[in-house]
Amino acid sequence: MDNSDFGLENDLFLRACLRLPTPRTPVWMMRQAGRYLPEYRAVREQAGDFLTLCKTPELAAEVTVQPVEILGVDAAILFSDILVIPEAMGQKLWFEQGEGPRLAPPVRSMADVEGLAQPDPARDLGYVLDTIRLVLARLDGRVPLIGFSGAPWTLATYMVEGGSSRDFRTIKRVLYEEPETLHALLARLADAVADYLNAQIAAGAHAVQIFDSWAGALAAEDLEDFSLAYIRRVVERLTRTREGAPVPVIVFAKGAMVHLEKIAVTGCDVVGLDWTISLAEARRRIGARTALQGNLDPAALYASPARIRELVARTLASFGKGHGHVFNLGHGITPDVPPEHARAMIEAVKELSPAYHAD
Fold first, then answer.
1. Are the C-beta atoms of residues 145 and 73 closer than 8 Å to each other?
2. 97-148: per-residue pLDDT in tens?
3. CA 309-314-319 angle, 5° bins
4. Does 81 participate in catalysis according to the annotation?
5. 31 is catalytic
6. What are the chain's domains?
7. pTM given for the model
């Protein structure tokens, strides 16, 4: 039954998330507010550094809206970073050129976990909520705004490792030798993530996405206990309606596509797909339970616009006829992709997808 009124000029993204009829497939991109856009780089230079950009609501709102105005995507996604939660819990956060994020001191013992603060979103992350309100004013009802957070497992990897990791050796040691310490950290993170996302929803976010970027680092036997159980805990606590309209929840567990059925029962409305699985297979396995988001390989955007159009056609054909598909990349757009290639993808989705929604 279709009784959703989102009060937006373009609500295709939200309708697709809920598997409601749409005249075409909506499209947006992870990391769409980013370095591939010259307009973003200009604002980043104005801010001085990445973290200052995240914490300056006027500038963060500007780069959030840029892809809507420049590329014509069907949704905006909040410009921020997943690591603002560990910072709000008491870790020092900074970014090193060419090295990525750094967090100190690392969290590696039960005493470290117990020493963490439980953040109050309004007090400790108020700049994010201010950004949401500014973005909504600038969008003026044109398209929905997606809020987001890192998943507990992914946040924990950064907090324990002290930054990015290639082999996750430190958090894996804690997982196998001191699982009670890791469970305590994950439980605190799940509560912090739920509070944070609920605050984003209260501020006006129309949908939220939970990024478990490092889900694929877990052994098959550990995924449920250390990742999905805590995503489920987050989802169970989320506010799922606002002002009478549904608030869809997307779960994206990169590298864990072999476990699609388990991801689909976390309580989410949409399962995000990386590029390692076909939409056809994902739809066959879980398409009756959730909508699907994805999943063009981000590297496809290095191809010519003509070839990108062919790859978009292939992706749309893989999902086939029907509703419940949000077109996206299988991960974030990379910084050196030409903006005109991103535009070619978006235009191809808009031109080619109506055929899959016709009666």
1. no
2. 777 899 999 999 999 999 999 999 999 999 999 999 999 999 999 999 999 9
3. 125
4. yes
5. yes
6. 12-356 (3.20.20.210)
7. 0.97
